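User: I'm curious whether this sequence folds into something compact or stays loose and floppy. Could you predict its structure so I can see for myself?
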Amino acid sequence: MIKLPSLSYLERYRNEGTRTYSKHSDYSEAAAPYQPASEHPGFAVPAFRIPRRCVNIYAANPTEAVRRRYLEPENPLFCVHPQVIETCQDDPYIAEVKAVGTPADPIPVEPTSSTRTLTVPGGVAHALKLHFPFRVSRYGRKMRDEVIEQAVAVSLELERGVDVFDRSFAFLREVIGVSLKNKEQAAQRGENWGYLVRDMTPFPQAQGSRPLIPGFALYGKDLFDPGQELLLYELIGEREPLRWVLDNLMLPIVQQWVACYRAFGFMLEPHGQNVLLEIDADSEIARIVHRDLSVGIDMRRRRDNGLNADHLNNYNRMDNGEFASISYDMFMGSHFFERVVECCVQRFPHLVPEDFRGPCRERFAELFPDFGRYLPDDVCYFSEKRDKFNKPLYEHTGRKPVWRP
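Assistant: Here's the prediction. I'll summarize afterward.
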């Protein structure tokens, strides 16, 4: 039986050496007190009671306790990251919050690895994903209205259609979204922003207590004890490493990515931060838990499946396979699986990367025989060029995929 640190500890301090997937990955404009690895145990999020007429509200089956806390009928709660309050005084929506909002009790939170997503300790397990227009890695982390609305819509569709997955799949639901009303109707896109409430109990809910391990904590070093044994090695134990990694980690994630894409056109992003491993009483991986539902949506696949899209807005709608390659080949394959492979090859020198890649390619082809209609022949990734909203463009790298045919 493995004694695991808390999820909060793993999120914040078992992440050393993992931000190497691009030259931007370790960059952050978060102030020191709000950094995940800060020495501060947590901080308080300013909250305001806002008149209902001033906000948009989206909901996807929140628990009654969470609904009562955030969605008071006449004056719902509006949460703002303290760094936004401190440094964005010229933001017109900050001015509105201060003008029409009534300060409520600040919400104690603990940071997670994603910086803008903050867990709320005590009571019903949930987290707040806040507007954070400061650059972390490649770009600023805004929480605009259309992003919030889409995440809640995707969460609700996955919840209703969860039976397309096997029992190894779970996800964290985005149950409430609150954003300010748009002030600039003539703008090309709404810059009005808000926040999400994330249910931290994996869905479908399992019986008993099952701790969670962030994917990056498998290979991340401990900030305070860098010589400590990697969690990946502890979980493998005396088992045959190749079979254990394939059966418990890689093949289930490949199967889940394909099932989600084929059924919904949603492109999960299973990199080390977005994947959580649910551990049972025997220290085995019971389920793969996916988080962050601001996913790309392949409208070609949805049309082929005859799926209605009236409940989806225009955010992240796509009609080509470039982002499918980014999410599968790069986020999952390069940024996550390759790090696990690297650790396995170092500890078990009889193994080589192809031992892991080959079975994943075979499983992908078996599950998705017509993948060539949707995914490009080469690997795509982010370009250093930006669009008019300062988001990275995509580019074809010309490299042959190694985690799919």
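Summary: The chain is about 30% helix and 20% strand. The first strand starts at residue 43 and ends at 45.
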